[in-house]
UniProtKB/TrEMBL annotation:
<dbReference type="InterPro" id="IPR036298">
    <property type="entry name" value="Chalcone_isomerase_sf"/>
</dbReference>
<dbReference type="GO" id="GO:0016853">
    <property type="term" value="F:isomerase activity"/>
</dbReference>
<dbReference type="InterPro" id="IPR016087">
    <property type="entry name" value="Chalcone_isomerase"/>
</dbReference>
<feature type="signal peptide">
    <location>
        <begin position="1"/>
        <end position="21"/>
    </location>
</feature>
<keyword id="KW-0732">Signal</keyword>
<protein>
    <submittedName>
        <fullName>Chalcone isomerase family protein</fullName>
    </submittedName>
</protein>
<dbReference type="Pfam" id="PF16036">
    <property type="entry name" value="Chalcone_3"/>
</dbReference>
<keyword id="KW-0413">Isomerase</keyword>
<dbReference type="InterPro" id="IPR016088">
    <property type="entry name" value="Chalcone_isomerase_3-sand"/>
</dbReference>
<feature type="domain" description="Chalcone isomerase">
    <location>
        <begin position="24"/>
        <end position="192"/>
    </location>
</feature>
Amino acid sequence: MRRFLQLVLMALLAVSLGASAETVEVGKVKFPTQVDVGGQRLVLSGAGIRTKAIFKVYAAALYLKTPATTTEAVLSQAGPKRIDIHMLREVDGNELGKLFTKGMEANAPRDELARSVNGILKLSELFAARKALVEGDFFSVDYVPGVGSTVLLNGKPSGIDPIKEPEFFTALMRIWLGDKPADDDLKEGLLGLKKLRRSN
């Protein structure tokens, strides 16, 4: 009987590991279909590629508790969220910080932008300190209610304190999901409007 229970547990573990190992491939980057943020399981809501001219700049993925297909649904959804970005080419750190700032300025309401200044400065300083993000570098911003937005760089703490203002994460998301998105195709991808190729 004990041997039977061991086999059942091993089978269940294998199924569980298989499910957690499922990924989608975007621009040669494999994003997991599930992640843990703030002790809660989030699912991949959408992903896509940021292109500029003919160049692929980065691949991005959005994680939510429940997939959402409109900007309003993403921004209004309660609970933890994550935006995950993987560089596909080298980008100057200062330039990336400026582009993100411009994206927020172009899309966020004035009051939301005013409350996001602290976070914008911290993110810009982080990128500037790196000088450049090269192909293969990746960073994520995790938003957890009551904690704020935590920035991870290459899977490790970035060294900056959590950005407590909830408006910052909303303004950040507007870069890609606002009325003047950085890339229309990427907006569609993050909103789950493009089919993704699954792999293991």
